[in-house]
Amino acid sequence: MTIVMISNKFQGGGEELAQALAAKTRWPTLHRQDLQDQARKLGIKVGRLETSMIKRPSMDEKLAREKRLYLAFLTAALCEKAREGDLIYTGRAGHLLLPGVGQRVRVGLTAPMEIRIKRTAQALNLSQDKAESYLAQLDEDIEKWIRYVHQVDGNDPNTFDLFLNLENMSLSHAADILCQTAELPDFQATSESVKLLDDLLLASQAKLRLAFDDRTHAADLQVQADNGVLTVTYPPHQEAIKGYIPKALADLEACREIRCTMAETNILWVQERFVPGSDNFRQIIQLAQRWGAAVELMRLLPMGERVGAPGGDPNAEYEFGPRQCPSAPSCGFEVDDTEAALDDGGLGRVQEELVSLGRCGGQHTVCGGHAKILERVQDNGQYALVVIGDLFLSKGHSVRTRRTREMAMNIRDRLKAPVITAEELKSRFLFGPRQAMTLLGFLAIIVMLYGLVFNHQTAVMHFLSGSFHRHYKWVGSVAVVLLIPIIAYLYGTVTGLALKLINVD
Fold first, then answer.
1. Mapping DSSP to helix (H, G, I), strand (E, B) and coil, where does residue 348 land?
2. What SS3 state is found at 245?
3. Using alpha carbons only, what angle is made at residue 243 by residues 254 and 249, rounded to the nearest 5 degrees?
4. How far is 4 from 17, CA to CA, in rounded Å?
5. What is the pLDDT of residue 315?
6. CA-CA-CA-CA dihedral for 313, 316, 319, 325, to nearest 10
7. 258 touches 284 (CB < 8 A)
8. How far is the C-alpha of 18 from the C-alpha of 6, rounded, in Å?
9. Which ranges of 189-344 would DSSP assign to H, the alpha helix?
10. DSSP 3-state assignment of 326?
11. What is the distance between the alpha carbons of residues 222 and 206, in angstroms, rounded to a whole number?
């Protein structure tokens, strides 16, 4: 069930490479244009979406909904084809689809510009100069499209497994390389990758059903799937559609359970192990209840040791290549210990608590680093907050703190949402003993300063406009310049803490 996903530019040889690979492997091929035609037949306005997203740098709510619908269709179509067996897909950004699925071979392809110009001139009956200008504008538009749809740079080397240059390589030899690459154990299906593929298919099918159902098509819904359980969140002002969601998804294949949660927004909580009743749990629940938010859980498992491979150095501290996760069932490796196989890091118990509180936003398990988090959440909607909790538990306190902060910074740079660590959560959003002491201390200072000013008005006026001022005018100016920002800071802090005390953000 290997999926070779070839991404290339217009007239860059992608379709020809797919055909050469199919001739060697007998695998079916699927092209982006085929899926676009199917999407149009379903009523998805792909052309309008492309034009709007390329010409306008910002998307309105309607376009954002259209984009999510288009991505849901692409994901569902690819998952259905991939479940039938091996597959070859070509498109402008195929390597960014099916996030997290391990049996993908994400292939980038480039060809000399002069060859692309000649092919374009011949295909569109253009002069060489016009063909060159056309390609330059098209490449720029495609880069905009990829950035707006997938929220990443389409040329980022970290998003590819293999990149081929056809300048000095024939299509036949490139196909040979892909054949050998696709046969590597690193790109074979595992139980976990198959489960993730099934979850992506189920979530995408649910999104399509809800989007095309007359009762729910106008709702702003977030959909997650995990092991056959669908979690659908809806905003409070659309509570009337709650009863229609299960009806729209009633006969959806592979769906075991449907959970509907009312939420104004989502909070993503990333942690290695979850414990109901812990400090982090209580703080996040308190914030979620104040905001009316659903809590989406993500268990992040750090990479373990490298999977052994012939020729590897057993004494090397670090080696490149795939690394297995410490939790076998979450990453598709077989284990003999039944108790260990059932260990989900507390996800199940915490999710049960969230369901009982009406704050469940779904769950994920991810193996890797910040790139895997971003890959998994890139199409899951907007988050009001991302909380990076307890990670790297096998490390010492200083290393754990440093790496957690680095993780938060890396995610903050790429995700359009506030990202904080669990340590920062209480100080920034919640009211506790430290905030109470700060409130009382700053309030006392403000009262003291105002008391001094009002009780010594004669001295103040002498200082600002009397004989002292006539001899030392600059002193009064400096004092006012320094005092005003201090008063403003103290007053702003007290006001913010007071609002936080009464749960007003």
1. helix
2. helix
3. 20
4. 11
5. 46
6. 100
7. no
8. 8
9. 191-212, 244-248, 279-291, 328-331, 338-341
10. coil
11. 10
Torsion angle defined by CA atoms of residues 364, 365, 369 and 374, in that order, rounded to the nearest 10 degrees: -20
- The DSSP output letter for 236 is G
Euclidean distance between CA atoms 155 and 8, whole angstroms: 10
CA distance 361 to 456: 58
Region for 376 from its dihedrals, namely left if φ exceeds 0, alpha if ψ lies in -120 to 50, beta otherwise: alpha
Amino acid at 433: P
| Closest alpha carbon to 100 in 163, 190, 34 | 190
Query: Which residues does 280 contact at the CB level (< 8 Å), separation at least 6?
Result: 269, 271, 387, 389, 390, 422, 425
* Paired sense of beta strands 222-226 and 162-165, if any: unpaired
Query: Helix, strand or coil for residue 417?
Result: coil
Asked if residue 128 lies in contact with residue 117, where contact means CB atoms within 8 angstroms, the answer is yes
CB atoms within 10 A of CB 114: 11
**Confidence band of 149 (pLDDT split at 50, 70, 90):** confident
**301 phi/psi in degrees, rounded to 5:** -100, 120
In angstroms, how far is CA 71 from the centroid of its own chain?
A: 14
- Residues 115-127 pLDDT 10s: 999 999 999 999 9
- 107, 3 Cβ separation under 8 angstroms: no
Q: Structure tokens of 360?
A: 């469940």
20-29 pLDDT per residue, tens: 999 999 999 9
Predicted confidence (pLDDT) at residue 213 exceeds the cutoff of 80: yes
| Closest alpha carbon to 24 in 108, 109, 88 | 88
Closest CA to 97 of 138, 149, 48, 49: 149
- Confidence check: pLDDT of 378 > 60: yes
Tokens of 109: 């392809």
pLDDT band at residue 431 under the 50/70/90 scheme: confident
